[in-house]
Amino acid sequence: MHIAMVGLLLLTVACGRRGESGGKEATSGDRLRYRSEENRVEVITLEKKSFPAQILSNGKVSARRKASLSFGTGGALRSVAGRNGTRVRRGEVIARLDRPDLELAVASAEITLRQARLDYLDRLAGQGYAPADSARIPAQTREMAATRSGYASALNNLEKVRLELAGTVLRAPFSGVIADLQQKVFDQVSTGAFCTLIDDGGMDVTFSVMESDVHRISPGMVIRVIPFAGSETEYSGRVTAVNPSVSRNGLVEVTGSLEGTTSLLDGMNVHVIVERILSSCLVVPKSAVVIRDNLNVLFTYTDDGIAHWVYVNILDANAESYVVEANASRGASLSEGDEVIVTGNLNLADGSRVVLEEPSR
Fold first, then answer.
1. Which pTM does this prediction carry?
2. pLDDT of residue 291
């Protein structure tokens, strides 16, 4: 009986000690769990430098020279000297029509002209003029003889049928590549568009900018063009024209001339970057600027490990960086040599304690 009671007492004391020990461990764990986290940041030293300001837009490429070609008359297609994508030189034949009736018309007109010429010379001879005297025949006499003999009419008719026959041959007005060709040999062709000739040696790009940005663009500025079609190739050029008119959507059309464009296609969609170089600017990465109180803010770092926020105005931007100045209306100041926090600043407040770490490579 006594032995059982002693054992029960010892068991109770042991359980109490384990409970006290468990409670201490839980309290210690809670303290560790709620320990404040360190704000680890990276900084850069602010300096004035040149800045490539950018305006981003989307545009469309077009050939500098492009012509829709058509025959001067209709008929059956006799031959085609190429297909879509074929390169032709200026004056080279692209296609011909089969019009034997016009060939006969030319031959007939030539015969009529020869006959009329004989009658013309006879009329001049009747007035005492030999063919060798043409230089001293009065212009009025020559004109009257040509009209009465039918020579003038026959000459005009020959020129007309020759022109019609020439309309059966389609030639390249300039060097380029054939596009939009649909007809095949023996197809009946009308006087409508037969194909398009594109001079791919020179391309323009047309794009739009907001009217608020138009004052920043002028002819001669550098542009860069990147095709939508996943190409890593970048093309350069310059602004050639700014349309002095604003659309209903508040956009202004800009045209640029591109260089080295043989792989670009007429009508291709592209990204356009307009660049201008600004000198002596305070430049920070975009990650350095955050929003506080609906205003732009960046944080500077001091040697005592404290972050201080500075209200700033963004003066210009490109894909990676901002040009900034202190927001004087908020009593802010910013100058060269300041250490600006560029990472770890999303949750900072004015006066936050921070720990500096090495920039990531």
1. 0.62
2. 94
